[in-house]
Design goal:
By secondary structure, the protein is α/β, with parallel strands linked by helices. It folds into two domains: 117 residues, Response regulator (Rossmann fold, 3-Layer(aba) Sandwich), CATH 3.40.50.2300; 94 residues, Arc Repressor Mutant, subunit A, CATH 1.10.10.10. It is 40% helix and 21% strand. The protein has eight helices and twelve strands. Strand 7 and strand 8 form a beta hairpin. The protein binds calcium ion.
Length: 225
């Protein structure tokens, strides 16, 4: 497994490299956003560990650029604890998970392994509900003939809902499957993503595919809304 670490604090980068190598990963380190972007373009990584505040281009931009190019390598973003950087923003730019600094090495490894598992177990099939079409392999979502651009996390929420179309799924189930069992943030984040999805896949098309089942959760209409 090959990991790219983009981190400008040399001591942190060196410690992460040592730790990951001890776990058997092959590690490349970039100390600037510009170098990180170049390495990510030139090589195929299994996971990218990405700091946000970087010289050159920042982590948000780097991640958004990857996604714009259609590169869905799992990204674990490192956020600062001081709160001026928004985790939700990290996820909106297409990161798959985030970790707040300072972090323990054990947690870092656990998160990386969770990302690897998730990308390895993604079911290789596409899903339809009415004219709503979701293809996890190509990271493609369409409403009829119109392609809808979704961030990684929005895509994961929609994929989970459409796999269970017609069924009521609870907020807890969505959290467990799309985030991970160790998620310690605010469970209302699910509502935030449901809202994003409605704005993208329903409202422009005058549809209402994602139904709120009060007190229970959500249901994706089997007919696509
Ligand atoms: Ca930094």
């Amino acid at each position: 497994m090959r990991v790219l670490v983009v981190e400008d604090e040399k001591r942190v980068a060196a410690a992460v490299r040592r730790g990951l190598e001890a776990e058997g990963f092959a590690v490349d380190v970039a100390l600037t956003g510009t170098d990180g972007e170049w390495l990510a373009k030139e090589n195929k990584y299994d996971v990218i560990v990405l700091d946000i505040m970087l010289p050159g281009i920042n982590g948000y931009r780097l991640c958004a650029n990857l996604r714009e190019r259609g590169d869905w390598t799992p990204v674990l973003m490192l956020t600062a604890k001081d709160g001026d950087l928004d985790e939700a923003e990290a996820l909106d730019t297409g990161a798959d998970d985030y970790l707040t600094k300072p972090f323990s090495f054990v947690v870092l490894i656990a998160r990386i392994r969770a990302l690897l598992r998730r990308s390895a177990t993604t079911p290789r099939m596409s899903y339809e509900a009415g004219d709503l079409y979701v293809d996890p392999n190509a990271h493609q979502c369409r409403r009829g003939d119109v392609e809808v651009a979704l961030t990684a996390r929005e895509f994961s929420v929609l994929e989970f809902l459409i796999r269970r179309k017609g069924e009521v799924v609870s907020k807890a189930e969505i959290l467990e499957n799309v985030w991970d069992f160790a998620f310690e943030g605010d469970p209302n984040i699910v509502e935030v993503y449901i809202r994003h999805l409605r704005v993208k896949i329903d409202e422009p098309f005058d549809k209402a595919s994602i139904q709120t089942i009060r007190g229970s959760g959500y249901r994706l209409a089997a007919n696509g809304g």
